[in-house]
Fold:
Amino acid sequence: MRRPSLNAYLPQRLQIVLLVFFGVIAVGTAGYMLLTDMGFVDALYQTVTTLSTVGFREVTEFDTRTKLFTVALILFGVGTVLYTLTQIMELALEGDLRSRFYQRRIAMRIEQLENHYVLCGFGRVGHEIARELRERGVDFVIIEQTPEEVDRARAFGYLVIAGDASDERILNEANINRARCLLAASDSDSGNTYITLTAKSINPNCFVVARVGYPHNEEKLRLAGADRVLSLYSLGGRRMVLTALQPLAADFMDTLASGRHGDLILTEFEANSENGIAGLTVGQLIAGASNATLLGIRHRKGDLEVGPRNDSVLHDGDVAIVLAEEADIAAMLAPAAEPRRQ
Structure:
């Protein structure tokens, strides 16, 4: 494994300044050792006291050559020391100010978010979740407490908050009160449980999707308030079996999961009195849509009806899953639904 270069830790200009600084100390120490009978420690001490302008007495009596050498060391060396300190302070303040401005800019962007997603954990699973959310154009915020992962998420240009997602203050920084969904994707089942509990205590209406590593912890997460609990191992096993037995069906599921399919979009919306969908049958809903397929209905009681018949009625609170073009989706969501009831 390659060791990181010095450039990874210090800017090149600071490297040059430090090289000159230590070079001056080395020249001063060597000069005093050659011009006098000083040992290394005394010569180093004399060089440092001279460059620092502290003004202690000389270690030994100086002759003319040593005095002229000291004058040259002061004229060149003191300026070098001051310039080195200036560069170090400038870089320190510059980095601190840049960090402060960055954090403030991120905080202002997060404050403006609404109906966004909060992703807790940026490990291997969290990385894939973030990639999918970005591809779908969804606003989201990442909460991660590992410094390396925080830096990695920032390198991708994501909105990141460094901290523990189970901390109420951190979730409030992520604007959890106005979030649409929280994804608890940390590697720890107990961590995801605490994250879920805290999120639900702040915003009971926030839809929580939690990752679970061990099946016996699923019930704990549900009791904590998670609306959906996903076991990656169970999902992976089912997917492998589906791919082995029905590869075309697996490809079809992947296509649906990608969200967009050319001009078609997979979406879901709730039937209610505001959009005029509640009370319509499936046939009435898609009557004005030239290229729409209603894949299923999740009834408000929780049961899922796949491939509903045209005479199936959409009640208030039911959620329709539709594959359609954007124009057809807009037509189905149009508030003027009365003509379709006829």
User: Anything to note?
Assistant: Residues 1-5, 336-342 have pLDDT under 50 and may be disordered.
